[in-house]
Amino acid sequence: MRIAVGEVSHETNTFCPALTELDEFRAREWAFGQDIVRRHRCVRSYLGGMLAAADRLGIEVAPTFATQATPSGTISRHAYEAILSALFGALRKAGPVDAICLALHGAGVAEDADDLEGDLLGKLRADVGPTVPVVVTLDLHANVTLEMARHATALLTVNCYPHVDAYDRGAEAVELAQRIVNGRARPRMHLTRIPMLVPTTATSLSPLKEVNERCRGWEAKPGIIDCTFVHGFAHTDIPPIAASVIAIADGAAAAAREAAEDVASYAWEARGALLRQTLGPAEAVRQALALEGRPVVINETSDNPGGGAPGDGTHLLRALLEANAPDTCFGFIYDRETAAQAHAAGAGATVRVRLGGKSDRMHGTPIESEAYVVSLTDGRFIRRSPMGRGAQVDLGRMARLRIGAVDVLVSSVREQTLDPEVFLLHGIDVPRCKIVALKSSQHFRAGFEPLAAHILTADSPGLTTLNLASFPYRRVTRPVWPLDADMTYRPA
User: Fold this and answer.
1) Which residue of 4, 25, 71, 323 shows the fewest CB atoms closer than 10 Å?
2) Angle made by CA atoms 343, 349, 355, in degrees to the nearest 5
3) Cα separation of 65 and 55, whole Å?
4) What is the greatest pairwise CA distance in the chain?
């Protein structure tokens, strides 16, 4: 058996002012053929899981094309056309295959393509014909559409946030593709879309923990292959955004529909618990200092590069500097200019910095201060977090600056903080700190929750704030909760 594998992944935040161009994909990943195998073998990624399952099952893999970019604004028409050309060119070059397994995101938006994945899968289906099984993995923040479900044989979405199960879903995709080809599975999918915008919420917390348990209950029933509540991606403004449930039954479409509609009803009834009171940066710092134990992790959810935010916001960092408490670190802020300035000055130098706040004023103004250059690195390390373990990370030239009593890490690449390794790289031992501040919404939990005495979330104006009502939605299909708080809904 021969299966083609590939990846196209981008989480698009249409509230970002700039288009995402081709160079942003090339900078993060733009790989063909055996380069994909070298990058993903033994890595806890979707493609890593696909490769491992193929090895275990004795399936020949035809690696085609893989690309991804850090979440950002709408993908330019030119970039999307180049991605399609690269993917379809690589698939044709691969020759005859029995099935195709693709790692897509599900929240991609390009110029002229609000539903990037639905558009891509439609073009793929037209290219390969109606009989070739196409099994797709999706991010939990996919805005799943009927177009995606129409053209894919099966859609398998990760269950966990943080997405620690990407590797497992990749493996399941190949396993299911083999069963389909061998005639041992006949997937029948049902998609129930829910007019609900879900603020970023970990699946280890209520109410999503209980919603996932409801899904697992359905999967324990005979004939149900998969059942997943999909959060959707609320930080974008397009008609298709919504939460959803995807259920897959073996040969019985009615069973898939029953499962999907039951979970959709359950999630809708639990929706009120998704709205949480949040802390401003200054209050989060005050509470952290008052708590017993260490470290106290403060995540700045509103400036999360993993959701399209610029990563150079200064609201939380300014609050930390005003408190000026010992054993405090911030890791990290994206500022290539300041990182280059520190490298030019060298370790041991004192420099006058204008740190962060260079993207816009929503996320805070630059911090102007004297800073001591403690250490300098190339920003490279191997990820140890359960999410993406084994991946090579490259954050560009980095610096550890000390401003007052606070250690601040500065990167040259925009990325959210996923792993304590970035602190170790600069000589900071997280468990010994009182406050560890970082930019992430939930993914940081995979690496930091085992170490943290407490976790506090700081929210402020930003492109990934939990305050969804602050976004100027104009295109989203209405009514939708919580923007229309009094609306009614019945799954159908």
Assistant:
1) 323
2) 60
3) 19
4) 69
pTM over 0.90: yes
* CB neighbour list of residue 54: distance below 8 Å, 6 or more residues apart: 3, 5, 60, 61, 174
Give Cα separations from 16 to 165, 177, 308, 344, 471 (angstroms): 28, 37, 7, 31, 11
Which position has the token pair 């200064």? Answer: 314
Provide the pLDDT for residue 336.
Answer: 98
Strands 406-411 and 243-250: unpaired
User: What's the pLDDT tens digit per position in 34-87?
Assistant: 999 999 999 999 999 999 999 999 999 999 999 999 999 999 999 999 999 999
Residue 257 is inside which H or E element, if any?
helix 253-269
Helix (H) or strand (E) holding 52: helix 46-57
Strand-pair category, 328-334 with 406-411: parallel
Per the structure block, which two tokens stand in for 257? 């529909």
**Helix ranges, 220-280 (H):** 253-269
Determine the length of the chain: 492
- Name the β-bridge partners of 136: 102, 155
Handedness of CA 445, 447, 452, 457 (dihedral sign): negative
**Class of residue 184 by CB neighbours under 10 A (exposed 0-12, middle 13-18, buried 19+):** exposed
162 and 39 Cβ atoms separated by less than 8 Å: no
Cβ atoms of 194 and 489 closer than 8 Å: yes
Structure-block tokens of residue 73: 């604004």
